[in-house]
Amino acid sequence: MKRKTKYYTNTKLFVILLAAMLLCYFSKFKERQYNIEEIFSEEQSEPPKIALTFDDGPSIYTEDLSEGLKERKVKASFFLLGMNIEGNEKAVKKLQEDGHLLANHSYHHVQLNKLPTSEACQEILKTNNRIFEITGNYPMYVRPPFGEWSDQLDCGVEMIPIFWTIDSLDWKIQNTEKIVKKILDEVEEGDIILMHDGYKTSVEAAFRIVDELQKDGYEFVTADQMIME
Ligand SMILES: [Zn+2]
């Protein structure tokens, strides 16, 4: 009898010990799993960013470009030429509705820092006014043609210049495959890509670039978001 009681006590002790060990193991396992999820979600919240920018528009291709970007949930930046706005007002409105950044690229595509102040300011202000007439907003950003800008230029309104880090040369290449290859070969996190929406090949290339880079986890932001980082 004595032996039997001892046997039961040992079994009970063993079961309790086993339960405690299992509990300990699973709670640690759960903790480990939780940590992995946490790290993963941190990585997920900071995807690499790219900004697509289009100069010299609007053009006959701009609405299609805006629509294609919208389908891909991409916001881009458009540096508009004042002289190209007339006749393309619908495109400008659509760009605004689709949430793109609208900015200034002068009126006549001139080198602003070579002009007398009054003429340079006219280039800026006339384009700002054209954009305001359609959207109800004055642009805050400018991409000076040829990247030539003087911080001394004072037109009474603050214009923040935005340049680029990759020049696609799309206007020169005008071949969808080659434009896509050039950009994908060069692209890195944080790049601001310069393109032009006046060419069908550029629009096609932009869609392909978005599709490829989204697959790689890139997120597309507007150029103002990129320079604020
Ligand atoms: Zn330009």
Order of helices and strands: HEHEHHEHEEEHHEHEH
Rg: 29 Å
The percentage of residues in β strands lies in: 5-15%
The CATH topology of the largest domain corresponds to TIM Barrel
Bound molecules: zinc ion
**Tally of individual domains:** 2
pLDDT averaged residue by residue: 90
Instruction: Return the structural class.
Output: alpha/beta
Give the beta-strand count: 8
Percent of residues in helices comes to 40-55%
Low-confidence stretches are none
| The CATH homologous superfamily of the largest domain | Glycoside hydrolase/deacetylase
Q: Let me know the largest β-sheet.
A: 6 strands, parallel
Global shape: elongated
Query: Which architecture name of the largest domain does CATH use?
Result: Alpha-Beta Barrel
Name the CATH class of the largest domain. Alpha Beta
**Tally of helical runs:** 9
- End-to-end Cα distance, whole Å, is 79 Å
Report what the structure shows.
The chain folds into two domains: 46 residues; 180 residues, TIM Barrel. The chain starts with a helix and ends with a helix. It is an alpha/beta fold and 229 residues long. The protein is elongated. Helix 2 runs parallel beside helix 4, helix 2 runs parallel beside helix 8 and helix 7 packs across helix 8. The longest helix has 44 residues. It binds zinc ion.
